[in-house]
Design goal:
Strand order of the largest sheet: 1-4
Radius of gyration: 17 Å
CATH architecture: Up-down Bundle
Strand content: 5-15%
Number of helices: 4
Number of strands: 6
Order of helices and strands: EEEEHHHEEH
Amino acid sequence: MAPPSLCWNTPCWLAPPPCGKSASGASTRITPSHQGSISSGRITYHVLFGLDWYLTGSPEGFAPPAPFTLNVLDPASVFPEQPYTKEQLHGYLVQLRQKCQATMAELSDERARRQVTFPCQGGNSLSFFELQLYGMRHVQEHAAQLSLFLGQHAIPDEALDWVPWAKEEPGS
């Protein structure tokens, strides 16, 4: 049984095409590409980036906090040789949790109905509220993939510190 920390950079599966068009011309989703495989650390960044982008509600003017980059939006980009650390990703998660809580607490009917357009949804418009539901589904999808990956590497449930309900972060 490998401890969770040893699985951090282990490839989970082959990467699908990045955001844009596939060889068949079909629209594809935002997916980081790195020599054909995606590690759990890169999936985590992909999920956090997507959540941040969707909570912002507009691709225009969006930028993740340093040290993170917009590289997942560029199909030709590759991730840095040194992946983001768990501490960096956890810090991003803490920031996004606060942003998500504030966004939902301040959500007006007008903003919920406002139409937004994101390139990875084929240029189609959807309401800001629908975008938030899409973001929630996106997080759940990758949480399930990471859970499957960890289970395949014999990581016991007790080692995952999984909780069914959100807990307050220390100091929040």
